[in-house]
What does this fold into?
Amino acid sequence: MTYSQRKKHAEALVAQDNYPDAKKEYELLFKENPKDEDNIRMMRFLFHRIQEGNYSFLPETPAQFAMRGVSRFYRMEFKEALEDLTTALKNQPRNDDALQIRAHTYKLLERYEEAIIDLKTAIDINPKGEYYDLLAEVYSDMNDIDTALPLYKKATEASPDDPRIWYNYGFELAESGQVEEGLRMLDKALEVFPGYENAVAYKRLLLSGKTL
It folds into this structure.
């Protein structure tokens, strides 16, 4: 399908209240064209709809438990989110989205080993750049930069059109003392998304001779 046809398909999913699949479609469209204001607007809508609309109902299927788990995650109800996501994964152990959110929850709770297991499983199922990126963040939180940096590199290789991943890689390189290489990764982020405010601000900081 062309870009326009995929947008119409994503709009149809929203009209059907199929928010999980619509979110995936708009994420892909955003990576292809991060300047498209329609995509940004719809992603904001879907974020709020998933956060609020999947909270106060009684789930019955694994997919519904996963969606309520996501909602609880964004509400920072991490214990409850883990319960829902674990219930979903008992019946759908290859749900890589649920594995990622559960891993992110474990990361925020500093349960790093459990986060690593979930992310490695998710990568085996679907080697997406965002999964490598989150796994790198977990190792970074554990102060294991030597393990984190190659994972950031894999993330950029898996998702070269994701400016956030280039930014994260550049940030980690610069903060570990590899400023020139970090600047090169920030430039990659800005090639993908010239208006990326975080990359612009951090590049300016590095050029002034400072880091965070």
